[in-house]
Amino acid sequence: MSAKKKDLLSSAMKRTSEWISSQEVSSDVTVHVGEASFSLHKFPLLSKCGFIKKLMSGSNKDSDSSVIKILDIPGGSEAFELAAKFCYGINFDMSTENIAMLRCAAEYLEMTDEHSVENLVVRAEAYLNEVALKSLSSSITVLHKSEELLPTAERVKLVSRCIDAIAYMTCQESHFCSPSSSNSGNNEVVVQQQSKQPVVDWWAEDLTVLRIDSFQRVLIAMMARGFKQYGLGPVLMLYAQKSLRGLEIFGKGMKKIEPKQEHEKRVILETIVSLLPREKNAMSVSFLSMLLRAAIYLETTVACRLDLEKRMGLQLGQAVLDDLLIPSYSFTGDHSLFDTDTVQRILMNYLEFEVEGVRISNNGVDLAGDMERVGKLLENYMAEIASDRNVSLQKFIGLAELIPEQSRVTEDGMYRAVDIYLKAHPNMSDVERKKVCSLMDCQKLSREACAHAAQNDRLPVQTIVQVLYYEQQRLRGEVTNDSDSPAPPPPAAAVLPPKLSSYNDELSKLKRENQDLKLELLKMKMKLKEFEKESDKKSSSSTISTNPNSPISTASMDKPPLPRKSFINSVSRKLGKLNPFGITPYSGRGRTKPPKDRRHSIS
């Protein structure tokens, strides 16, 4: 049929449709679409809809041709109503909200040029190409509407065209897009600059309305067009915050989420993790910690959780205490409050990066300072979990042994964690308490920590002896250094000020007191040895001789046993005499406790 004849036929059909509408001709066909019913006329429908024409021509003579049922048209009754209006020539507005539905409904009803000139398919395609796909926000809206029209939207390539348009326009809008890959080696420098001032493009919020599969395809298309992967960080953060909202990832208790919703969020989270940039510093540690909590809560794949743990280990030097306080989602009440196993794996990943040189350090990062920050962070973490009675001794020791020694400048943090653990576990045996105290190096304790440890009844006797011995060695070294250093000669007519003269007297007094303290320590050690010997003799006398006149029995009965606390009290009295640093001497009963700072302070 020539184009002229088609135009004439279309014009005639249009006039006929207008006449039918104006004369209010009674309907001769009823179309059921879902739960909606439309009383229409065969002529306007058959003139433009190939699908209805096939139904009418293929119906049997016995069947009622005045009733048509359409069950699976894309867009449902709303889309069919717009298509019917088009058949009748009734004007309506095409927009980004309904163009996807119109295009898919026209494809389903076969409203092509084979049946009418400038049919609905042609009109919808013209609007898409000239209006909808020319704007980024309109393309995102059309793609979002197309998600409910599958698989017809895929068959007419509506989804793929929207994705290509979005990828092209985002690369034009964003400064993260670079078609050349020659500067890929400088990615980390750029990432660090961007991490200081994260940039979120205006279109990132619009992408959060997409379904996760469409969102993933858009990001992949953007990277194929040259969009840098580290630039996806802010987009992924926005999408994760919106799609994972409502999860109880910061507390314990039974799960308050339906299985279907849990599965959907699990798929979303695993997809987001797979899209995370590989460059260091592209994502913040706090965001990675939030994803890891959600991954544990939703029970994602092991690979997903291990990936997040490795990423946190790579940037552990930037973490804060709250990032490591990951709740234990056991939901049984028999486990510890915090997931120490996950933190232990994160620390092992950090140490692995340090040892093998995997961590990128070409940009001048202070690795020593970074390791010192990690050491302080882990000591604070141990002090936080030490108050939990469900933390086993093996876990506590295993985590403490992983902290690098070079990261611990002082042992005050470890001492605080040990003291809190001993306080929270009062039923520990002497052997277990010795194991816990062996985690700290008494030589690295500060003066304040030594003063506290010397009066700490929770510590074993051997640990207190070590603390006092090393403190005495430190005092002796300081006095020796001060005495060995030559003082500048005073002027001829000058007289020593009273402060300097009292200082020299104090040094002399310290020397004498240190010598007395050393002798006292030696005496205490000898008394301890004698006490042990006497104990052995008592135990052996009960088996060797039962005669009351036996010399062994008489010797053991005549000498009274040494009190257990005489050593501690004697050394404490000697230390109290020194007191050159303003430390309050130990008085046994009436000592004052230092003020508590939070619940994990030393007391």
From TrEMBL:
The keyword Nucleus does not apply. Residues 478-499, 531-603 are annotated as: Disordered. Residues 590-603 have a biased composition (Basic residues). Keywords: Ubl conjugation pathway. SMART domains: BTB. Pathway: Protein modification; protein ubiquitination. Residues 27-96 form the BTB domain. Residues 540-553 have a biased composition (Low complexity). Pfam families: BTB, NPH3. InterPro entries: BTB/POZ_dom (IPR000210), NPH3/RPT2-like (IPR043454), NPH3_dom (IPR027356), SKP1/BTB/POZ_sf (IPR011333). Residues 201-474 form the NPH3 domain. Belongs to the NPH3 family. This is BTB/POZ domain-containing protein At5g67385-like isoform X1. It comes from Camelina sativa (False flax). The gene is LOC104762814.
